[in-house]
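Reply to dn_fold:

You asked what the input looked like. This is it:
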Amino acid sequence: NAHADSKPQLKIFADDVKCSHGATVGQLDKTAMFYLQSRGIAKEVARSMLTFAFANDVVDSIILGSVRFFLYKRLYNRFGRDWGSAEDFESLHTIKEPRND
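and this is what came back:
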């Protein structure tokens, strides 16, 4: 019984612009959940792994390195602790540390 509120904001500084917005929500991939569970991964851990992977893809698109790295840490602290170690995080993200963007 999930609930989501989407509140997009558009700031328009010209009178001759057409704008639109949208938002989508969905379920985690049932095939991926089944695959992870068939490998002995608990349902909640599998859900955490898939959520982390989805959010990580979004963070990968952030251009500003310092913001991207900050969000990687937040994602790990929220989802990665269920199945990963601090060493895993460091080895995966050392090349993604803040850089001069």
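The mean pLDDT is 77.
Hope that clears it up.
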